[in-house]
Amino acid sequence: MRRTESYLLPSSSPGTRRELLVHRYGLPGGKKAVIQASLHADELPGILVAQHLGALLEPAELLGEVVLVPYANPIGLSQVQGGNILGRYDNNSQENFNRRFVDFIPALKERLPGRLGADAIVNVRRMREEMIKILEEKAPIGELESLRWWLLRLSVDADIVLDLHCDFAAVLHMYCGTPLGWEGSDLAAELGVLANLVAEESGGNPFDEALGAPWWAIARHFPTFPVPPACFSATIELRGEADVSDSLAEQDAAAIFRFLQRRGLIAGDPGPLPSLRCEPSPLEGVQMLRSPATGLLTWKLPLGAQVRAGEVVAELVDPTATPGQPRLSLRADLAGLLFGRVRQQMVRPGQIVAKIAGTYAFRSGHLLTD
C-alpha cells in the first residue's frame, strides 16, 4: 500500500512554489526506513534507483514503514544554467545542500538528564521524542531551511536512513559513522561497495551525520545509561554522474530491497548474503590527490585500482609546453583503493583530482570535500 504526500516549501519569489514529494509504503508503528535520492540535485543515479525501488515496494508485504523521497531537492533541480543542473549549492546562499543540518547534540545534552533510565528501548523512545521537539520548536525561514527541516522531520524517528548520492566518477562506495561501520556490513555486501568510509565527525553536519551522530554522542555523554545507535544512517555513493542506467538502478534497488528484508521491514527471503568486498576504512585515511598545476590529466590507473604508495596515478600535460616535454607525474602518497576522480580532465592548481582510500588515519578536521 502506497500513500503519496507532498510538502510545500515557502515561495522564494513571486509566482513560484516548490514541493517535496514523499511516498510511504506499509504502516507506521514498527520499524521505519527512509531512503532519499539526489540531495545534491545534479547527482542523478539515485532518482532512477528510487523509481525501481518504488516498483519493488508496491507489491511487497511490508512489515514496517518505508518512506521514499524520490527527489530530495526540488530547489536544486530548478537551478539550471546552459542546460546543466547546478544542484550542489543553493544559488541564493551558496551553501552546500548537504551541510548545516540541525545539530541535535547540544540541546539533547541539556534535555536528557532525568529522562534516561536502565531500559534501552525506553531511552530510544525518549531521545526521539526530544529530537522531534527540538525540530518542532524551530521555525525555519525560507526555502532552504524548510527543505532541510522537512528532510529531518521525515527521518528523525527512523531506524534506517539511506541518502543516495554519487561522485563525479567513482566506484560504488558508502559513508557512515565509525560506530556503524561493521553494522553496515550487510548493506555493503548487498550493494557490493568497494569502500566503506567511516568517521565519527566528518565536518559540516551533513544529513546522515545529523541523524546518526547524536546516538553515539549521547551514549558517550551519559555512559551509565544504555543508549544504542538506534539510527543506522549512511550515504551511498552510486558510482559517478554518468552512471545513470536501468541496469545499474535495477541492481542497486534490488540490493537495497534485500537489505530491508534482512532488517525486518519487508517479508520474504533475501537469499544468502553476498561476500563482503571491503572492510570499513577511516575517512581520515583518504588521500585527496591534488593537481600541482594547470593542465590536462591523462589517467594511468583505472577506477577501482589498488594503488601502491608512490605509484603514478595520472600525468599532467601542460598545453603551453613544447610537444614531447616531460609531464608532471601525480603520485599516490599511500597505498589504497582509487575510488573516485574528476570527470573534467582540464584541471587547475590545487584542485582535487582523485581520492584514494587508505587503511590508516593520517588527517583530521573537515574530512569531506565541499
Task: Describe the fold and architecture.
The protein has 370 residues and is of the alpha+beta class. It has 2 domains: 2-278, Aminopeptidase (3-Layer(aba) Sandwich), CATH 3.40.630; 283-357, Beta Barrel (OB fold (Dihydrolipoamide Acetyltransferase, E2P)). Helix content is 25%, strand content 26%. The protein is built from 8 helices and 20 strands. It has helices at residues 45-57, 74-77, 105-111, 120-136, 142-155, 185-191, 207-221, 246-262; strands at residues 2-8, 19-26, 32-37, 65-69, 80-81, 84-85, 160-167, 169-170, 173-176, 195-198, 232-240, 280-282, 286-290, 295-299, 306-307, 312-317, 328-331, 336-341, 346-347, 352-357. The strands form 4 sheets. It has a 9-stranded mixed beta sheet with strand order 1-2-4-3-7-11-9-10-12, with helices on both faces. Strands 8, 13, 15, 18 and 20 form a 5-stranded antiparallel beta sheet that branches. Helix 1 packs across helix 8 (246-262) and helix 6 (185-191) runs antiparallel to helix 8. It starts with a strand and ends in a 13-residue tail after the last strand. 41% of the residues are buried. The mean pLDDT is 97.
Give the topology, please.
Elements: E1 2-8, E2 19-26, E3 32-37, H1 45-57, E4 65-69, H2 74-77, E5 80-81, E6 84-85, H3 105-111, H4 120-136, H5 142-155, E7 160-167, E8 169-170, E9 173-176, H6 185-191, E10 195-198, H7 207-221, E11 232-240, H8 246-262, E12 280-282, E13 286-290, E14 295-299, E15 306-307, E16 312-317, E17 328-331, E18 336-341, E19 346-347, E20 352-357
Parallel strand pairs: 3-4, 3-7, 7-11, 9-10, 10-12
Antiparallel strand pairs: 1-2, 2-4, 5-6, 8-18, 9-11, 13-20, 14-16, 14-19, 15-18, 16-17, 18-20
Helix pairs in contact: 1-8, 6-8
